[in-house]
Amino acid sequence: MDTITRKASKGHRLVLLPLPYQGHISPMLQLANILHSKDFSITILHTSFNSPNPNNYPHFMFLPIPDTGNEMHSLSDLKNILQLLNYINTELVDPIRACLERLMKEDERVVCLITDVHWFGTQSVADGLKLPRIVHRTSNISSFRSFVAPVLLRDKEIRSARGVNLLNKLNKITWQKSKGKKVVPITLKTMDKSEASASVSRLETFEVKDLPKFLPSDPEGKYKILEVMVKGTQEARAIIWNTFKELEEHELEALREDFPNPHFLIGPFHKFFPALSSSLRTQDQTSLSWLDKHPPKSVLYVSFGSLVRFEESQFLEIAWGLANSKQSFLWVVRPGSVEGSEWLEPLPDGFLERIVEGRGYIVKWAPQQDVLAHPATGAFWTHSGWNSTLESICEGVPMICSSSFGDQLLNARYVSDVWRIGVKLENGFERGEIENVIKKVMADEKGLEFKNNIINIKRKVNLCVKKGGSSYSSLEDLVNYILSF
Ligand code: UDX
Q1: Is the pLDDT of residue 32 over 60?
Q2: Is the CB–ligand 1 distance for residue 387 below 6 Å?
Q3: Which of 82, 100, 6 is nearest to 45 (CA)?
Q4: Which part of the chain has CATH 3.40.50.2000?
């Protein structure tokens, strides 16, 4: 590949199609900004559900897919994710084809379609229009490997390190097992301890319990979706990652075996372009003035991303764990994130006044990247979404991980066991464990060790996005690659 970057002439147009969720829209819009800075013209193709705000991006063209948004809205709860993916990859495929055809007629310099991997149904559209399709995977490589493991390992019948037939093990998770006369879905509750802690072949770092949890109610549906997603990714011309080589070189090599496509590791995206407003919610800027009043590294920032929801009992364990830790905290509680409540109603009478007043601050949504960069922030209690994890790494803030679903489980395992930059809460939400872990990370020797490790990675991040660094060079390669189409 050339080492000198060819410049896209204004007009080489890229069409980017994000999955309409916060954790997917933000990195796709950051990627769009990065490519725009390389002189590509940008069109954002988007659903009306969770539409990004075009006013924040006057330099892009926005093209709404003509859908009503109602169907997607009714499927927006996480428990309907399979139906939603099915819907967008079948019902929206024709409207997307029509949009692209029209755009390509009006502008003959459309050179490439870049979609989230979850838009696997668009591969046939791109093929039909002879438009190269590249995919962007918003998670990291490690978690992607675990994500696709059921499909790839099933194909190959690989045996696990402990001689247990992994295929069977995965089937147990993926499908169902018999209990007496009943067939019960496999969940961590129905699995015995040794099954849950078994190691997984070729995914050395993971234990079975870390593999992404899906809906036991529809294992067949999950498998089919994974299968087409794997196929759609393998058929794409390349894969773009919001990660960097120094962090995942080993995982990339392992992935190449099944995904021989060109891979471009050009993250962390937000190091090239600090967050423009891709936030779908209003960020409460008083978070920052509140942090201003606190000494360096004294505040625990608590946020569980844009999708995770809690039962009331879990929410109360979090609240009491925070209160009993006696540490200062800034806590994001998204309205509607606690089952059956609008916002903070489940908190006991007087909790806010007596316990939280002065030491804690609760907001509905924070300017997260600025919060993590604030000198007062000492640690981050997170759900381990990839954007949050990456943002924390970039600011050198150690983590407490409470993963919930999908890639979060793997991210948390890597944070605690591989990169050693934080700790994973292993027992869900239990106030005693929470209190101890917060003290450990904020005030203990262990916290210092995490801090040193994460600062080391932060240094590598700063280098990789500079001229000659791995992400910088990979971006040059990506531009050249697109211009070679
Ligand atoms: C989802 C999945 O949960 C995650 O596992 C996957 O990697 C991406 O899709 P989400 O739950 O939103 O994402 O988490 P995350 O990936 O961490 O993204 C959240 C984004 O919202 C971050 O960029 C964060 O900076 C932003 N955010 C979060 C705010 O701006 N304010 C907040 O108060 C909380």
Answers
A1: yes
A2: yes
A3: 100
A4: 12-142+222-272+466-483, 286-462
